[in-house]
Write a structure and sequence with these properties.
Elements: H1 6-17, H2 29-40, H3 58-63, H4 65-73, H5 97-108, E1 136-139, E2 143-145, E3 152-158, E4 166-174, E5 183-189, H6 193-199, E6 206-207, E7 218-223, E8 230-231, E9 236-240, E10 245-252, E11 259-261, E12 264-270, E13 276-277, E14 279-284, E15 301-310, E16 315-323, E17 328-337, E18 341-348, E19 359-367, E20 372-381, E21 408-415, H7 445-450, E22 455-457, E23 464-468, E24 473-479, E25 485-492, E26 495-499, E27 506-514, E28 520-526
Parallel strand pairs: 9-13
Antiparallel strand pairs: 1-12, 2-11, 3-6, 3-10, 4-8, 4-9, 4-12, 5-7, 5-10, 14-21, 15-20, 16-19, 16-21, 17-18, 17-20, 22-23, 23-26, 24-25, 24-27, 27-28
Helix pairs in contact: 2-5, 4-5
């Protein structure tokens, strides 16, 4: 392969940075792209939000235009791990193909602003809370996370005022330190045992591994990276007992620095004498119903595991929350009703520890007695897994540490009625747009084909680079600023993940080509 000189690489970088003149068919920020961004991107990408850069103006969009194009083309953003083709879930954060095409056409056409008078007003985020007016809000005392070589599990009692039984219809966990909080489990305790354990420890909270150390405490909610607040279906709620304490178990991974955390829980309560009680349980789990366990993944092996559980009573499920750690690469669950009726539940073909969640069904699913729940998960404990926490790979077994593994499927459920499937949780095929803005620009077939080009995400990249390819079979290469090829591999399929963790930081040229065509090149940056 012909290598590029430093001079030619510099010229290429300059060329890539110059906006091209927009054609008459190019979408504009004001008329087309702003509506998409404000509706689907700005909710995270704003000042103080979880996104690591802002997308609140044309200047923001223009600066990050290439990253937006690459991330949406790869369907890496907006983050939505479940496969909508297996089962469409409630409140899906998914762009339509038209929206993806419009962003690509806008970038390829030079990313013009258009008439600024046509730009919809950007959204206003007055609070980082989704439940911005909670009936109950409780925050733990400031806790200094000590430096440690091992994971830290800490339980905090959050006394609340709840003089009578009530019903939780919305629950939100707001981590005080998202960089350090691995997960949060929310329990209710009406025995006073958690307060006693807390009183015995002079520091805020008390140590608790695997739970909160209280028999009979009920799990009522959870937070893991990527999750969003949970809301119950109409007429259903999680019973919050009178005078119960909230207790959160927070998992902090090992750290070499001291950090501060003050995690909060917000609760919305429902009313009505006929609320139905929901429970949250890991009905499929690695402890009691694996059919080919135990969950042990030897070094340099890829293992697939299965679980099975027969439903002992008529039940209705309203949501599902798969959970695993870093070795896992895919998770799937389905049900088989009597009569061999298969009901898809969820499929996450590319499991990502950083993007987990509890996913509600568009309508509750009724499972008659005798229904069999099934699950499957794949674990890749080899060097080809870019998320493998061990180098070289080491034996991985069940445990709560980040470097251990789990295979859990939490279900939110209640004793069921067939008519429950008529309850509507979400029947909108697409998330509502900001201020009902509309996108009318139409992309033609020729326009889409012309934009079938090489892209990569994220940019700048750190540990891995996800490459979207305009062909199914060929090669990719990474060339450093001295014209040296530092990576070369054959690829099959439209996407390739490059492990960049051991490459020097700086800018490179990414080159890709099929067997019978000239290569395409783009500039990428590692930081």
């Amino acid at each position: 392969m012909k290598k590029l000189s430093l001079l030619s690489l510099t010229a290429l970088a300059v060329q890539l940075a110059i906006p091209q003149q927009a054609s008459a068919q190019t979408p504009t920020w004001s008329d087309d792209v702003a509506c998409i961004v404000y509706s689907h991107c700005s909710t995270c990408h704003h000042e103080g939000g979880p996104g690591h850069f802002n997308l609140m103006s044309y200047a923001d969009g223009y600066w990050w235009r290439n990253e937006m194009r690459a991330a949406t083309q790869a369907r890496f953003m907006p983050p939505w791990p479940p496969d909508p083709g297996y089962r469409s879930m409630a409140h899906e954060r998914i762009l339509t193909q038209q929206e993806i095409d419009i962003i690509a056409a806008w970038v390829d056409g030079g990313a013009p602003e258009g008439n600024s008078q046509n730009t919809p007003p950007p959204p206003v985020f007055e609070s980082e809370w989704v439940i911005d007016a909670p009936d109950i809000t409780a925050i733990m005392d400031d806790y200094v996370i000590p430096s440690s070589t091992s994971d830290n599990y800490r339980c905090f009692v959050l006394p609340i005022s709840n003089p009578a039984d009530s019903w939780i219809t919305g629950l939100e966990v707001v981590p005080g330190n998202t960089a350090m909080v691995h997960h949060v489990l929310v329990f209710q305790d009406n025995s006073g045992q958690a307060q006693q354990l807390d009183a015995q420890d002079p520091a805020p909270g008390y140590a608790g591994f695997g739970g909160i150390g209280v028999n009979g405490a009920d799990l009522i909610g959870a937070w893991v990276p990527g999750s969003t607040p949970y809301f119950t279906p109409p007429g259903m709620g999680i019973k919050l007992l009178a005078n119960a304490d909230l207790v959160i178990q927070v998992h902090y991974p090992a750290t070499s620095d001291t950090e501060l955390d003050s995690t909060r829980v917000n609760i919305r309560l429902g009313t009505g004498p006929f609320m139905r009680d929901l429970a949250i349980d890991p009905i499929l789990n690695h402890a009691s119903n694996m059919t080919d366990g135990p969950l042990i993944i030897p070094a340099n092996q890829v293992r697939t595991f299965h679980q099975q559980y027969t439903v002992p009573l008529n039940a209705t499920i309203t949501s599902i929350a798969p959970h695993a750690h870093l070795i896992c690469t895919s998770m799937k669950a389905w049900a088989v009703k009597p009569g061999n009726i298969v009901v898809p539940l969820i499929d996450i073909p590319n499991w990502d520890f950083a993007w987990q969640g509890s996913y509600s069904f568009r309508n509750p699913i009724y499972l008659p007695t005798g229904t069999v729940l099934h699950s499957e998960a794949v674990y890749d404990n080899t060097t080809t897994n870019p998320n493998n926490p061990n180098s070289p790979p080491a034996l991985v077994t069940v445990g709560e540490a980040t470097t251990d593994e789990m295979m859990l499927y939490y279900f939110t459920w209640t004793p069921g009625l067939p008519s429950d499937e008529n309850i509507v949780i979400d029947n909108n095929p697409h998330l509502a747009h900001h201020q009902d803005c509309a996108v009318d620009f139409t992309i033609g077939v020729e326009d889409v084909a012309a934009r079938n080009t090489l892209s990569a995400y994220p940019l700048p990249a750190k540990d891995r680079l996800v490459i979207s390819l305009p062909f199914e079979r060929g090669k990719v290469a990474l060339i450093d600023s001295q014209g040296r090829t530092v990576h070369l591999s054959s690829v099959t399929g439209p996407q390739h993940t490059l492990d960049a963790s051991r490459l020097a930081r700086g800018w490179y040229v990414l080159e890709a080509w099929p067997a019978t065509a000239l290569p395409q090149r783009i500039k990428v940056v590692l930081e």
